[in-house]
Amino acid sequence: MNDSTIYTLDFDGVICDSAIETAITGWKAGTTIWNDMPETAPQAIVEQFREVRPIIETGYEAILIIRLMYLGKSTAAIYANYAAKVQRMLDEIHLSIDDLKKLFGETRDNWIANNRANWIAMNPLYPGVAEKLRRLGQRHVWCVITTKQERFVKEILGANNIELAGERIFGMDRKLSKPEVLKGLKAQYPGRQIYFIEDRLPALEGVQKHPELADVKLFFALWGYNLAADHSAAAGQAIVLQQLDTFLSDSLGAV
Known about the structure:
This protein is of the alpha/beta class. It folds into two domains: 138 residues, Rossmann fold; 103 residues, no CATH class. Helix content is 50%, strand content 11%. It is built from twelve helices and six strands. α1 packs across α3. The protein starts with a strand and ends in a 7-residue tail after the last helix.
């Protein structure tokens, strides 16, 4: 194995196109809070969710966004003063963020228990990514750094015949920020180049705020959940704008 470069990848929006599953899980969870919502999510709302997906940092937010969509809010309206809308909804339903995280995870667990094949089908990997990760694993150390709960990452990777040791999946369970995970990896692999591949520009900019991570090479996954405005904002920064075909072609490194 060539350990010269450590590859760290976000999961949703880089490895897995989970937008539909996240929308449906958000809807299922929402029906337990608001009894006026029907059992099945309308297809139009599921499709609209993809437009709003770039604003989400952690999955539980899907519960609130789905509710806003059900109430008829447009994509533009949801983006406007988003943080304030989230806080107002939390106040109205008298639930904490931890409560919603628990509900979101349990809703996924129930879906998996009742119909694992359907849940997996709603979490497809981006075309070519499974093969890329298998090649990566033959020659490099690679890790997942995500806000997703780790058991769900393990389920999806396993279903796609991708081997990754549990200690290399850094999810919500660790209660560490992405910069904190990267600092830990730098300490674990001193002197090694670290690549961080992420589809959310705020996450990449968050890494840039830590001088000790200045030598981490940042890649912006344009195939994920981001907007044209994000692409423009990233241009000129010390961030590599990366298309999926370039990532798959192994141009990030000698893989």
